[in-house]
Design brief:
Length: 410
């Protein structure tokens, strides 16, 4: 394999103005697959892949929809901080041990007071960052385009650096003395949290064409849960990387590699008994944690992600709708569209029966978890919010493509 070829979706869309252009695009993709071995389609929006063969992808948001959204109440702003623009990577702040940590592509890592946004310390890593921020075992973890893992303590002191096989597009995570790193070439690495030395490696099968994913891994109860291309959800032992079970969330279907893309490009979610994941061009499905037996599955498509509470599984669908399924049965509870956007972030569970979502125009939306009704909407800096909003004791915070951190009260 010569290497993964990353195609910018904005460039490709310009080719698709007629059916002839679409046929030419398929030929181009075929050639890239032959030359590069594995091709990855992405846009500057952090892994959102647009279905080029759907006629309504470029549908215009009507004026009545925008007017209704603009009439909604605004959220109370707590503070704003400018950190640094991210051109291709997706970053999300993380709240840990009473502090907020955030990073940007320019190599900057900061620790902030979550109540005021005041900077406690700053580290300029001298690296171009591509993944972060991850936490665990008292460490703050970052990844770079060169496959470097950077570990710091909670005072900003460098602990160690390690190198893996390719770019790191998601936050590394640590638990029980193991740092888990996901790389752009489809591997998972288990590193010793003390010094960064390799403990184990997992390599999954990779289809010829995949969505460029910024999803990391979920660690819980001594296990790692991760979604992969081809609709696979895998549970591994944290300490040795051995596979506990592997299940299929969605089977690839169709003739072309484009049609057969069923990647799980977002984080799975779990509670005490079940783990759920959603695939692009596929399904959402929930499984028993211990056995991997399927509980229920429904047809849907998302590369943004999902979240779960005691009653429902909430999904940000690929065409700008939010949908809720009953957690135990998979019965549809409600669906909310007309949110003013075609691309949403993964949802966040907030107190007061609220659901928080960001969109590609930089707006934050607050929905009622019971029925999906809109509660509030607030702007940021007009650039995309691609990562899930992050919890704060007094509300939540989002990070935009332009590098703005915006904290809101609930």
């Amino acid at each position: 394999m010569i290497g993964r070829t990353s195609l910018l979706i904005d460039d490709l869309i310009s080719l698709v103005s007629s059916w002839a252009a679409r046929a030419g695009l398929l030929l181009l993709l075929t050639q890239l697959t032959l030359l590069g071995g594995c091709a990855s389609l992405s846009d500057l929006g952090g892994g959102h892949f647009t279905d080029l063969f759907s006629s309504d992808d470029e549908a215009v948001i009507d004026e009545a929809e925008i007017a209704a959204l603009e009439a909604l109440p605004k959220l109370e702003s707590l503070w704003q901080v400018k950190l640094g623009e991210s051109k291709t990577a997706v970053f999300a702040p993380v709240y840990e041990n009473g502090a907020l940590y955030a990073a940007a592509e320019n190599g900057r890592l900061v620790k902030l007071d979550p109540a005021t946004g005041r900077e406690i310390w700053r580290v300029d890593t001298d690296h171009q960052l591509s993944g972060g921020v991850g936490v665990g075992d008292g460490m703050i973890l970052l990844g770079t385009y060169k496959g470097e893992v950077l570990a710091f303590d909670e005072s900003g002191n460098s602990l160690w650096q390690a190198r893996v096989t390719s770019e790191i597009l998601s936050p590394p995570q640590a638990d029980s003395g193991i740092v888990v790193v996901r790389t752009g070439d489809g591997r998972l690495f288990g590193l010793d949290a003390a010094d960064g030395k390799r403990v184990w490696i997992y390599q999954g099968a990779t289809p010829p064409l995949t969505v460029r994913s910024f999803a990391g891994v979920l660690i819980s109860r001594g296990a790692i849960f991760a979604g992969f291309p081809g609709g696979k959800l895998i549970a591994l032992n944290l300490l040795n990387g051995n596979v506990g079970w592997e299940v299929t969330v969605a089977e690839p279907h169709g003739v072309t590699e484009l049609e057969r893309m069923t990647d799980i490009s977002s984080l799975p979610v779990m509670d005490r008994n079940e783990v759920c994941a959603v695939a692009y061009h596929g399904k959402v499905a929930c499984f028993e944690i211990t056995t991997g037996n399927q509980i229920w599955a429904k047809d849907t498509s998302s590369n943004a992600g999902l979240i779960m509470d005691g009653s429902y599984v909430y999904i940000s669908e690929e065409r700008g709708a939010v949908i809720a399924y009953d957690k135990s049965s998979g019965v549809l509870a409600w669906k909310r569209d007309k949110l003013g956007s075609r691309k949403l972030s993964a949802p966040m569970i907030a107190r007061g029966m609220r659901l928080v979502i960001g969109d590609d125009s930089g707006h934050v939306l607050l929905l009622n978890r019971q029925d999906g009704s809109l509660v509030a909407r607030s702007p940021t800096d007009d650039s995309a919010i691609q990562a899930r909003p992050e919890y704060l004791p007094d509300g939540f915070v989002v990070q935009t493509r332009k590098g703005g951190l915006y904290a809101f009260a609930l």
